[in-house]
Structure formats: structure tokens, C-alpha cells
Specification:
Blueprint lengths: L5 H14 L2 H16 L3 H19 L4 H11 L7 H8 L4 H10 L5 H10 L2 H8 L6 H8 L4 H8 L7 H11 L3 H9 L5 H8 L29 H16 L5 H10 L2 H12 L3 H9 L4 H9 L4 H9 L8 H13 L2 H9 L2 H9 L4 H4 L5
Helix pairs in contact: 1-3, 2-3, 2-4, 3-5, 4-6, 5-6, 6-8, 7-9, 9-11, 10-12, 11-12, 14-16, 15-19, 16-17, 16-18, 17-18, 17-22, 18-19, 18-20, 18-21
């Protein structure tokens, strides 16, 4: 008697699944997952194709808790049953859908774009948190607007097309947070940055250059904190430093929120420079000293740009931003640290601020 073909065997197995008790279905599902997760890549690929139809039947006959476990397990596999993945990813219950949406490499860009267009907010947030996002998926998510745009901009794995950048620039006209996040993103193209900086929030079109217009007013220096401000800021900064949390994240937050005393004190503690030097470089029209202080503090370029962009009443021009980045990328850490502590910057600050040093030395490192 000839053995049944693989198709016959699968057909019989699917029929058995359709009629077996629900608790047994859950056990079969768990057993198949164990087979998939315990196999090597080649065997995993073969098994995925064979068991896909059976898994689809099982997903119709088990409870949500079993589907969540299945989704969590399949999300970690390099090769997984494709139809089952798509069904889980498009499931109405976000607890079922989110594990594969966020982590599974088996979902195509087309799958993700379709779910981004039709899924709920949690589905969209899960997709926006993936390690790598294709531009077509980004475009589908941006159409929903709101916080998802910021999530995408802040995800270093997000890919942007020209259409996606155009949509974000249009939204940035009305949303300053989007404009700021996109301008601070290190890989944002120069052309996009120019368009962002050429119009302030609320404008619908970039401002056109006017040959007869007067030159821009000098950048207003940030108001220097008083001794009481520094005294209030120092305990928090020192505490953050001691537990290793005085870093790019916290300093970036101080800059964006305009927490001047916290920002100045943080730069002083991180760079080892007296507070007078920090005040001096923050007020200087030339960005070089401030870039050096940030480099000496071991801050990233993104955080340095946030400090530069928020220290006065006007935005950085494209040329200023480009020059500042060139200085940052070519400076040696040791040179920056020596210069802000003992070099020309320190000497200049000591001369110009000698009258106020006595009141401020209490916050120097």
C-alpha cells in the first residue's frame, strides 16, 4: 500500500485539528512552536512552509492567551510561517499583533504598510518601534500624524523618502516639536534642514529671501542664572552625575526646556570647567567655544545642536549649523578639555568675568 502524499497527510492533520477539543489544540500549537524554535535555520524554513496551514487552523480554535504566546515566539524567528505571521500581525487585539509587528523580520514592507494604514494606534506604535523601517512604511505611518511622527523621527532605524520628508516639513509648520526633532536628527539631509529653518511654525510656505531686508538681529544671549538659581540646581546635577544619569538625555532635556541653571551647571560638571567659562561660551556669538565645551563634556552632536539651537532668540542658520558640526567632528576630546579649562577660552572668561567669580565659584567642579 502506497504511503499518503504530504498533501494528504496535511489535509488529514487539518481535519483532525478542526474537530479536536480546544485544550488539545492549545497543546498541539505549543508543540509546533517548540519544533520551530528548536530547529536550525534550514529546517526552520522547511517546517514553516509545512505547518503554516495547520497553524492557521489552530489560531481559529485557541484563546487569546495562546495567540499572544504564539506571536511572541514567532516574532523571534528568522523564518516563520508567513500566512500565520500576517494573520497575527493584523489581529484586532493589539496584545496579539504587537510582538510580531515590532520584532518579526518575516513581515514584508507591504504587509507593514497595509497594517500601518488600517491598524489601531498600538499597532502603529509597534511598527514605529521596529529596528528598521522601510520608507514606504514610514509614509503610511506619517499620514496618521500626531505623536507617531515624533516616534519615527527619533528612531534611528527609520528610513525616509522624499515624500515622507515633504509630509513632515508640512506638519512642522504647525508643530514645533516635529521641526526640532527633525532638525536635530543627525542624518536629516541638508536640503530638508534648510527648508525647516527657512520658516517658523505657523507659516504655510517658506519665507522668501528679500534683498532689501535688514540683516537679522544679533542672537540674544541666554539670561545668566543668579547665585540662588545655581544653588538650587547643583544638588540635582551632582546627584545625576553620581548615579551616571548626567548624560545626553538629561542635558538635551535641560536645553530644550530652557532650564538654564541646570544646563550651565551640567556643562560645568561634565567638562570640568568653572561656571564662568560656561557662561562666557554660552553668551559668545561665535559657536566655537560652546562646541568645545560640549565636546569636552563628551556630549553627542545631537545634544550639542540642541544646546546651540536653544541658547538664543533666533535659530541657527544653515551655515552656522554646518560650521558647528565641522568643529565638533574635528575636535579632539583632550584639546577641548584643555582649552575650556586652561586655554584661551578660560583666559578670556577669567578676564571678562573676574568681578562675578566670587559669587559663582561655589558651583564649579
Amino acid at each position: 500500500m502506497m504511503a499518503n502524499s504530504p498533501a494528504d497527510i496535511l489535509g488529514e492533520l487539518e481535519e483532525a485539528v478542526a474537530t479536536c477539543p480546544l485544550d488539545r489544540c492549545a497543546r498541539i500549537l505549543s508543540g509546533i512552536v517548540q519544533l520551530l524554535t528548536g530547529s536550525r535555520d534550514r529546517s526552520q524554513e522547511l517546517l514553516s512552509g509545512v505547518v503554516d496551514g495547520v497553524l492557521l487552523r489552530l489560531t481559529e480554535r485557541v484563546e487569546a492567551s495562546a495567540l499572544i504566546q504564539l506571536s511572541t515566539s514567532l516574532a523571534e524567528l528568522k523564518v516563520a510561517p508567513p500566512e500565520t505571521l500576517r494573520r497575527l500581525a493584523s489581529h484586532a487585539n493589539p496584545d496579539v499583533a504587537c510582538p510580531v509587528l515590532q520584532r518579526s523580520p518575516g513581515l514584508s514592507a507591504a504587509d507593514l504598510a497595509a497594517i500601518a494604514a488600517s491598524g489601531g494606534p498600538r499597532h502603529q506604535r509597534a511598527i514605529a518601534a521596529r529596528d528598521s523601517i522601510e520608507p514606504v512604511v514610514t509614509e503610511a505611518l506619517i499620514k496618521h500624524g500626531g505623536p507617531i511622527c515624533l516616534t519615527l523621527i527619533r528612531n534611528p532605524g527609520t528610513g525616509f523618502s522624499e515624500a515622507a520628508y515633504a509630509a513632515l516639513i508640512a506638519r512642522a509648520d504647525q508643530d514645533g516639536e516635529i521641526m526640532k526633532a527633525l532638525a536635530l536628527r543627525p542624518d536629516t539631509p541638508d536640503l530638508v534642514v534648510r527648508k525647516l529653518l527657512s520658516a517658523s511654525p505657523g507659516q504655510t510656505t517658506p519665507a522668501k529671501p528679500n534683498a532689501s531686508a535688514s540683516p537679522p538681529a544679533p542672537r540674544a544671549a541666554p539670561k545668566r542664572p543668579c547665585a540662588a538659581d545655581y544653588a538650587g540646581a547643583r544638588p540635582e546635577i551632582v546627584a545625576l552625575s553620581r548615579v551616571g544619569k548626567l548624560n545626553d538625555s538629561s542635558v538635551n532635556r535641560f536645553a530644550i526646556r530652557g532650564e538654564t541653571a541646570n544646563l550651565f551647571t551640567a556643562l560645568s560638571v561634565l567638562s570640568g570647567a568653572p561656571i564662568e567659562i560656561v557662561e562666557h561660551v554660552m553668551a559668545d556669538d561665535d559657536c566655537e567655544g560652546l562646541v568645545m565645551a560640549c565636546r569636552a563634556s563628551r556630549l553627542s552632536w545631537a545634544t550639542t545642536l540642541a544646546i546651540l539651537s536653544n541658547r538664543g532668540g533666533t535659530r541657527l542658520s544653515f551655515a552656522e549649523r554646518e560650521r558647528a558640526q565641522h568643529i565638533f567632528e574635528t575636535l579632539l576630546l583632550s584639546t577641548s578639555q584643555w582649552t575650556v579649562r586652561w586655554g584661551e577660552i578660560a583666559a578670556g572668561a577669567n578676564t571678562s568675568d573676574a568681578g562675578t567669580r566670587g559669587a559663582k565659584m561655589g558651583v564649579s567642579r
